[in-house]
Design a protein that fits this description.
- The complex is a heterodimer.
- By secondary structure, chain A is an alpha/beta fold.
- Chain A is built from 22 helices and 12 strands.
- Chain A has 3 domains: 2-196 and 227-313, Up-down Bundle (ABC transporter transmembrane region fold); 320-412 and 494-503 and 521-582, Rossmann fold; 415-491, Rossmann fold (3-Layer(aba) Sandwich).
- In chain A, helix 3 (52-101) runs antiparallel to helix 5 (112-137).
- Chain A is elongated, with a radius of gyration of 35 Å.
- The N and C termini of chain A lie far apart (81 Å).
- The relative contact order of chain A is 0.08.
- In chain B, the strands form 2 sheets. A 6-stranded mixed sheet of chain B has the order 6-7-8-3-9-10, sandwiched between helices. A 4-stranded antiparallel sheet of chain B has the order 2-1-4-5, with helices on one face.
- Chain B starts with a helix and ends in a 10-residue tail after the last helix.
- Classes of the chains: A alpha/beta, B alpha/beta.
- Chains A and B meet through helix 2, helix 3, helix 4, helix 5 and helix 7 of A and helix 1, helix 3, helix 4, helix 5 and helix 6 of B.
Amino acid sequence: MKSLLRMIRFVKPYKSPAILSMLLLLGVVVSDLLIPRLTQRVIDQGIAQQDVSIIVSTSLLMLGAAILSALFAVGNTILSVRVAQGASADLRSAIVRKVQTFSFGNLDRIQTGQLLVRSTSDVRAVQLMVQMSLRMFTRAPLWMLGSIVMLILTNKQLSLLMLALFPIVVGIILFFLGRARPLFLSVQQKLDRLNQVMQENLAGVRVVKAFVRSEHENARFERTNRALTVDNVRVMQFIATLIPTMRALVNLGVVGVIWFGGRQVIVGDLTVGGIVASINYIAFALFPMMMLGGMAGPLSAADASAARIWEILDGDPEVQTRPDAQALPDIKGRVAFEDVCFSYNHSCDEPVLNGINLAAEPGQTVAILGATGSGKSSLVHLIPRFYDVEAGRVTLDGVDVRDLTLANLRAQIGVALQEAVLFSGAIRDNIRYGRPEATEEEVIAAAKAAQAHDFITAFPDGYDTVLGQRGVNLSGGQKQRISIARALLVQPTVLILDDSTSAVDVETEAKIQAALEELMAERTSFVIAQRISTVLNADKIVVLDGGRVAAEGTHAELMESSPIYHEIYESQLGNNQEKIVQ
Amino acid sequence: MTKQQSRQSSGMPGPGGRHRGARIEKAEDVRSALHRLLAELHPYRWVLGAVLILVTVSTLLDLAAPFLMGRAIDEFIAARDLAGLALIVLLMLGAYAGAWLANVGQSMIMARVSQSVMRGLRRRLFEHLQTLSLAFFDRRPHGELMSRLTNDLDAISRVLAQNVTQLFTGALTLVGILVMMFAINFWLALASMIVFPFMMWLVGFVGRRTRRGFREYQMRIGRLNGKLEEMFSGQRVIMAFGQEAAMLDDFEAANEQVRRVGTRAQTYAMLVPPLMGILSNANIAILAGLGGWMTLRGWTTVGAIAAFYNYSRKFAAPLRHIGNLYNQLQAALAGAERVFEVIDQQPELADAPDAIALDEVAGEVIFDHVDFGYTPGVPVIKDMSLRAAPGQTIALVGPTGAGKTTMVNLLTRFYDIDGGAVAIDGRDIRGLQKASLRRQLGIVLQDTFLFSESVMENIRYGRLDATDEECIAAASLANADQFIRHLPRGYDTKLSERGSNLSQGQRQLLAIARAVLADPGILILDEATSSVDTRTEVEIQEALLRLMHPSASSGRRARTSFVIAHRLSTIRDADKILVINEGRIIERGAHDELLAQEGFYHNLYMSQFRGQSPPK
């Protein structure tokens, strides 16, 4: 229950309505307890003494108590729903906020499906519990306590019977709670998986159709579907035995009262009215047990879900702003790598990058070339601290990037990631994503520089054209150009283009580069590319090989000195170069 | 004008899709959702019959107990008959034990039945999604669709699992109690009925509001899920642009909507029990007053009142329950409507009844005066004709948005052409079974998509019955073997979502391996190597060349391939290069011929050397 109890902090902001709802509940309990007492008065005083006025007045009192009880209950409902919905909205918000602090490293290990289940299904389980607690949890013990007091007042011996039943009931509930939790945990994990299969199926729908794999997908889904069903049935059947068992125990109590109470009446220690009232109280007192029994399922489900939510909330962002981090007021854009070693598994034994020393002066364009998997993207990811270095350091204007605040650092850097991920919404909003306050002129200027303006204005709705999720309704090259425009609009001091023109034709790319040369004259650019034509004019070309800098220099220098570069050049122009010369 | 953007922006309703914007409550919607939900239970009618018997038994036994109790008090306690009391106590014990057994039994069965129904619905939903057209998916946020599989089905599940039997128990208890009450005292029983009309009205009144509330709630939670899915899967971009705060604002707005709507729906739904509580307590008050008065007159006994009192307390519980269940049911129906909405979507154009299966292809592909546009009136492909002879490699070049990927979409019949014909081996592809057509095509799509499975399974996706050795061979051919072996667990390495633990180039290599493994009659590479470095690409090309043009001795025919690329080194060696601009083929020929023409292609080619002194 520890995970669930920790959730109390999300109820704290709603302290007053929560407390008020519990007070109202107290009213409900008091009025509910009054009613059997009043019934007894009707029987013992009214009927036995043939007093009609007592009968009538007591009945009216009962009606009043009933109405009062309902009013309290309505108030309690309204408040408890508000608290539960508020707390769950805050909880969802906390999860999403936490995810915002995660770095690429954290994200690599989490699947979207898992996050989705946690922020909807798991939050719901906790929400249900908060609501139930405010509506019942407090009622159950209060009710029980009140009933016991009344029972003792009515009949001391019978109350001993109740006390005997108590430990049994509590023991059974605890047993169920302990056993159900892992089962619920397993159900939620299966739900994660189901969600993931569905999400991938949706995202990969073109691949599924191209390879005619719908049957395979159906089978894949059915496997997880089946696993979920098996787990669900298991937990539900387990929980299903609890409520009838609790009810049987309550009934056992009633039978006990009849037996022992009956004997007392026979001996003359108890009135008939007393036995009726006792039955009522014992049912009343044990009824909360039944409710608790009914709650054991949701309770252990909520605890399991709470644990899963804490997994996210307790997650350690791998990259964080240091407490003593500073914000540089005026960044020129000098970027340097000093003896950098980097690896995704936090060990320099099998490094992705090793011994990297590299500097880019403001205004320079550094091009990075290298084989697939040689570490090009990893290298540029270190500049905006998508990941942190293992050893050595990356500096911006001579300051270690880890000593800058993340906000300050990333505000300086415009990135067009390798995968041009766009969001659903208008093209305009996608372009000004990094700077929502940008003017229309700035948006158009960025789009023009990225050679996107012409195709955008060719759409009937122009910049208002609404994109589908991930920009599905654009071609690869179009997406890349919007992604470049998005990076340019930030007016970055350091621009990173990670192979972001791979789907753009050479001529368009040339135009983009010409525009960039002007825009980035005072700033630093890192350009990852495969095509020699993309990097020809770079101030510095860096050839990566196996995570190390294999060569560094201008095109002309590298043509002379670097066999790898020469090889790359050959592979693109091959034997045709003579023809071009001609 | 390319792709589907205009289809998107025109907001065309999908095939069979009902407009769901500002919806007006329709009674037939509710009824049909209920009917269809009940139809899902139909296969289990015999099992459900058994459940009903068990429920009846347990209810009857539960009812018998107070009756026995009344007698115990009136006949044995009052008469001081200890032996009789003992007997009746034993009877009560027996009744309760029987009730327990029947209860446990029916819950066990119901858990299984309800989960089987849910499993069936989930499967139907998923399988139906497989049959829908790409246009359907292009329009829907993924998370919104996913919410139907989780949140909406969950709402149904909650009701189905517990409430169906509770509803029956409730109704049965109610009837049983009424019978007993009438048997004990007609007038008292009649008096207890006074509250009924009020209850009916109350449940109906609140129920209508609950239904509206839950409909909106399920819709809002679906939208929130859609937003979250897009946020979580685009998290890297959010971070790169430091837009966490803006994204949170956006999320909070949707979150706030869910909170607001959820509060309303839940409040309405939960108002019913306390309101029912007033009525049933009023009932007790009436009973006490009337009963007391009647006892005084000698028209009834104290024991009868006690029994009555007990019954009317039992009366309160099922009434509260039924009212509550009725409201819960609204949530389930709101969910069911959304699930059925997807299941009702028209599937992608089905094959013609006389469509033939394409078993093996020689590889001749013909585009004959093809016209196509994603939106009527906005042509993307205009009067395009081309012929690829069996075994030829055809390269498609041209600016982005020229219509190259669209041609692939037409050949695979992701979309159908508007005019002209596309034929393979002389057969119009519209007369072929779609699945058999696609099986002959090995496609590497522009957007590489990998599943979060092992590397091996991702390659095997190309041909499910391939052995590990064949997968490895395909990986070697695609030049992927080397990097795969360097992964922490080699071919068993599990990829993260979309393969994000690989570089883009590595992902492309896996996609090529996957297509190679499919051993297709026709290979289509849509910018398949755009992120692969050129040296690796040269090696892949050589390997592909061997694959597509096996040596004569192997006895295999050469295969046709289409290659879309911007890197001219990729396409230089193609048999035929088609230069496409604005949906038309403007130049065609071999590399040397096109260079000699000094036209569009020549310009493209030369731009690779822009700003550089001619190579020595």
